[in-house]
Amino acid sequence: MCNYLHIFCYNYFIVKEYERAVVFRLGRIVSKKAKGPGLIIVLPCTDVFARVDLRTVTSNIPLQEILTKDSVTTQVDGVVYYKIHSAVCSVANVTDVHLATNLLAQTTLRNVLGTQSLSQILSGREEIAHNIQSILDNATGKWGIQVARVEIKDVRIPMEMQRAMAAEAEATRDARAQIIAAEGERNASEALKQASMVLVEAPSALQLRYLQTLTTLATEKNSTIVFPLPMNMLDNHKPEH
């Protein structure tokens, strides 16, 4: 009879595969480690326990208004992926581990982006996200948190700045096109110079070039063909007075 009474004095709980239970007995953590998964035994009146979910958590960073290094006001939001790797630390070292991680992610996002210019934010989002991940992972390690990934979702800039950036990009494209055209003209002039030197050395090559030009024009079915003649031919047939 005493054995049956001894069995029924315990409380039994089932901890799922992705959960761990941190059991406190008279205010102290039992065995200094989490229990589970499976069946756990809890003593009534003396034991209390907390369930900890070990699955990856997706935490949205709300839209943050940031002043960049070059004094441009932007709005940036993001997302943090993390999980608890130590159930005991997440319960014993911080009151609300999820709230603390989210608030720290917001602060870190503002601090890191505040040291970057707008062009650096737009072009180096992956590098900035990796930097934020490293800072968060180091800061939340004592809370039992492992930050797996940080992503910057959207970067919003004022409409006036968007127009200015579009005008700057268009001017840059026009300047680049003019440089390319000038380079093409220079290369063409150098090629013509070399060709003229070859033709001067071989006068018969000029006649062959005339014939080749005629052939090209004839294939285009033109009704009028302009055929250049050497000036010395006209000089030889001038009437004598």
Characteristics:
241 residues, alpha+beta, Tetrahydropterin Synthase, Chain A, three-stranded antiparallel beta sheet, elongated
Describe it.
Strands 3-2-5 form a 3-stranded antiparallel beta sheet. It has a 3-stranded antiparallel beta sheet with strand order 6-7-8. It contains 8 helices and 8 strands, in the order αβββββββααααβααα. With 241 residues, the protein is an alpha+beta fold. It has helices at 2-8, 87-92, 97-113, 118-123, 125-140, 159-201, 203-219, 231-236; strands at 11-15, 19-25, 28-29, 38-42, 47-53, 57-67, 73-84, 145-156. Strand 2 and strand 3 (28-29) form a beta hairpin. It is elongated, with a radius of gyration of 40 Å. The protein starts with a helix and ends in a 5-residue tail after the last helix.
| Overall SS class | alpha+beta
* Tally of separate helices: 8
What is the name of the CATH class of one domain? Alpha Beta
Low-confidence stretches: 1-8
Q: Into which percentage range does the β-strand content fall? A: 25-35%
Rg, please? 40 Å
**What is the string of helix and strand elements?**
HEEEEEEEHHHHEHHH
Helix % is 40-55%
CATH superfamily of one domain: Band 7 domain
Largest sheet: 3 strands, antiparallel
| Amino-to-carboxy terminus distance | 153 Å
Task: Name the shape in a single word.
Answer: elongated
Please give the number of β-strands: 8
CATH fold naming of one domain: Tetrahydropterin Synthase, Chain A
- Strand order within the widest beta sheet: 3-2-5
